[in-house]
What does this fold into?
Amino acid sequence: MLALAVALTGAVWALLVVMAPMDAMQGPIQKILYVHVPTAFAAYAAFATTAVAGAFYLWREDEAFDRLALSAAEVGVVLCTLVLVTGPIWAKGTWGRWWSWDPRLTVTLLLWFIYLAYILLRSFTEGSERTARFAAVYGIVGLLAVPLNYLAIDLFGGRAIHPENLSRGSLGEGMGAPFAAGIVAALVAFAYLTCLRFQLEGLRALAARRASLGPP
It folds into this structure.
């Protein structure tokens, strides 16, 4: 059912992007923002899920929450990577260069490194309860980079060349629907991918427990 929702929302998203008017100043390159911005929102949701699941793990000491935190973080890093790929493509067509140490770009890169480190920590110290607790705290603290990323333009506006946050009235006519559909589609895709990864992680944990018991 969730896979069908991903397909339907993705199809609506693509249709609206094709039908959306072209920006008079930026031209066709502007349409990549219909992927870039929704993917960023989905990455925020992924990292928030990691933090919340980590908090529940510390509270309940249930391995399922630990697996959910890891699954969401992995999906979040993939989404954040997509943000870091689509952003420079748009920047090259708009600013004439692939990268600028703009505050939001810099914090986005920092966010990517924070959760990549989270995944590497888990992969190098697999199966340790102490590591799981440390990772839970790390995931909660790492979430602070999300509001910092979102507010980077307001906090460092004097040095920012990145477009401002989406707000009512800031989009041209016909552009709001593709962004809204894109955010919904990206969030549904995040939920679907996280569920798949969570199920795989559960199967891996079950296989590890059976292996530890030895042959029957």
User: Anything to note?
Assistant: The chain has one domain: 2-213. The mean pLDDT is 83. The first helix runs from residue 2 to 19.
